[in-house]
UniProtKB/TrEMBL annotation:
Record has Repeat as a keyword: no
Molecular-function annotations in GO: glycerate kinase activity
Signal peptide: none
GO biological process: organic acid phosphorylation
UniProt protein name: Unannotated protein
Amino acid sequence: MRVLMCPDGFTGTLSALEASRAMADGWRRTNPNDELVLMPLSDGGPGFIDAVISASTAIRRACQVLGPTGELVMAEYALLDEHAWIESAQACGLHLIRPDVRDPGSTSTFGVGQMILDALTHGVRQITIGLGGSGTNDGGAGMLAALGAVGFDAEGKLVDLTQGGLALEKIARIDISAATDLMRNVEVIVATDVDNPLLGLRGATATFAQQKGADDALIMKLEGALERFAAHCGKREDGKDPSVALGAGAAGGLGFALLLLGGTRVAGISTVMDIVGFRAALEDCDVALTGEGCLDDQSLHGKVIVGVARECATAGVPCVVVAGQVRLGKRDCAAAGIDGAYSVVEFEGIEQSLADAPESLSRTVARVARTWGRR
């Protein structure tokens, strides 16, 4: 029997590679003679660059940039000829912010812009930017500032676009011409982990700001600030409104800013699958095991699990999910193409799952293998 281990990372506990290894260890405990294929995936968030480099001849480049709270961090991206792949979480990821100081009203994407500038010094003409796992909610204003954009208040005074989403409450005018000119001859591909728009009930703030540290009061202020920011940014040169586009709300609205500059949105998971040769690997498999930290409604909107499930349905291969927690019912799972969903926490308990994440995942998969392995 041939089994494909293709999880995303389990946020806060395991990277995608670590999760795939733990899954394989667990499966072997029950079915030691099966052939296992490890293919850790990413939807554009953490692990994006690792997936690109592991499946191509791209080289890893490092540059020092400002992190989401203004501290210096080392960020890496992939480079091959005139194409660069940037993982935005390297510069603005939630994992870079201590839990006790998380504040999406003040965090910035400025470092992402610095990564773009560094890539441009190597003569790139195409940049694929993976979005996901951010700790920001600034609509990409910081990134635009790094590329030369400037904002002004009602009195004509400069507004610091690097100070986070709340600073955008003061915006009365924004000039992005320098950023637009800089990127005019560069093809920008925006690989997003979600398909949310910028604003509204499914927007960046309403959907994701709370998990980044915002309370209800801050969420209301940030929504208003992003609405004001988007209104003054206006439409793209081709007349399209980027604020309503799929993926505009990714990475706290960073998707919006990249689309504003002329970027084209693609699903991050589809991009990674193309790079790693997922469909070819799936053809010879009898079952695929995927997973992430929490299987919930967000998993159905551009995340790894739903991408795997769709490909499995097309190939006629069962898709089995082992997640830290499962918050979808059987009907929703079936509608998404998921043949079985199992919770590590349900088997192991929350304390054990966090205390020893690899072993807890392995033990859970060992149980799952009794059902889905060949008997």
